[in-house]
Amino acid sequence: MSATVLVVGAAGAVVAVATGGLVLAGVATDVHRARAAADLGALAAAGPLVGGGPPDCTAAADVATRNGARLVACGTGEDGSVVVRVSVPLGVVGRPGVPSVVDATARAGPVTGGPG
């Protein structure tokens, strides 16, 4: 009888650890997706800067949407680069201690100055 209780307890511990690992893996995936969407959105918005134009925030929003994110902010930074912030909903909503969204920010723009 005590062996059965021990086996059931061990199985429960394995399930709990596996569930926690899957939650962490899901959060890590969503964080990477947010970072990629922000990077790609910033690059898309920075295209017109090469010719001296304003950032193309419509392109940034389109790229973010295609990557499962929502454009939160898009504008020109102090150094003339484009700053894009996106938000991605987490797939593990409702877990204690886990936020419902993850934000990521990226910057892109033409190189000005440099060593030399």
What is the topological layout?
Layout: H1 2-46, H2 57-66, E1 70-76, E2 82-89, E3 101-108
Antiparallel strand pairs: 1-2, 2-3
Helix pairs in contact: 1-2
Summarize the structure in words:
By secondary structure, this protein is of the alpha+beta class. The chain has two helices and three strands; from the N terminus they run ααβββ. The model has no long low-confidence stretch (mean pLDDT 85). 47% of the residues lie in helices and 20% in strands. A three-stranded antiparallel β-sheet has the order 1-2-3, covered by helices on one side. The protein has helices spanning 2-46, 57-66; strands spanning 70-76, 82-89, 101-108. The radius of gyration is 21 Å and the shape is rod-shaped.
Task: Summarize the main sheet.
Answer: 3 strands, antiparallel
Strand order of the largest sheet: 1-2-3
Report how far apart the termini are: 78 Å
Compute the gyration radius: what is it? 21 Å
Question: What would the average pLDDT be, to the nearest integer?
Answer: 85
Q: Helix content range of the residues, please?
A: 40-55%
The structural class is: alpha+beta
Tally of helical segments: 2
* Inertia-based shape: rod-shaped
User: What portion of residues belong to β-strands?
Assistant: 15-25%
Uncertain segments are none
Helix-strand pattern:
HHEEE
What count of domains describes the coordinates?
A: 1
Question: How many strands in all?
Answer: 3
User: What is the oligomeric state here?
Assistant: single chain
